[in-house]
Design goal:
Length: about 170
């Protein structure tokens, strides 16, 4: 199987207010395996990332076009022409995509594009902290501390009883 060259196409959008951005990056190999990376946030920050994996370039382009139309309808405008880059071999892939974005893609997406790529030191992508409109995600995991609170209350009650045990007048009334 020949995966290379891998092509990367990035389109930048800026909100008409000028404080938010949205980037859509379509990455595909010669086998037409594709990954779409959506990145959004405040201008001058890296922002959050969402990665989708597709079996064909056509499906990936449909998803990218759908998101593009949605963003244009919400007040975003394209900021410059689409940037096209090509990674000719494995050694260029991370640098061509961009190191920060490459690391945020996660090992599943990288293995989808190039199954032979060494992803042993990579981890999978973290879920976004904010949705695409800037609202905090609702699925943030909260720790269940009810058992610890119950145990702490029991320990405090035992400590309080020890204070009374050392009192020579305790139990005389």
């Amino acid at each position: 199987m020949k995966e290379y060259p891998i092509e990367i196409e990035t389109t930048h959008y800026v909100h008409r207010g000028g404080t938010k951005f949205y980037n859509i990056t379509v990455i595909h190999n010669m086998q037409d395996d594709a990954v779409v990376v959506f990145r959004w946030g405040r201008v001058s920050q890296f922002g959050d990332v969402k990665v989708q994996i597709f079996k064909s370039l056509e499906e990936a382009e449909r998803a990218a076009t759908k998101k593009e139309n949605e963003k244009i309808g919400r007040g975003y405008v394209q900021d410059g022409p689409m940037q096209k880059r090509t990674a000719e071999h494995r050694l260029e892939l991370s640098r061509t995509i961009g190191l920060a974005l490459f690391n945020k893609m996660g090992k599943t997406a990288v293995n989808h594009l190039d199954p032979g790529f060494d992803t042993s030191k990579m981890r999978d992508v973290d879920p976004p902290r904010f949705d695409e409109e800037g609202r905090p995600q609702e699925h943030i995991r909260k720790a269940d501390i009810s058992e610890q609170l119950r145990r702490l209350a029991e320990e405090e009650r035992v400590e309080a009883l020890k204070v009374y045990e050392n009192n020579p007048l305790f139990g005389l009334f």
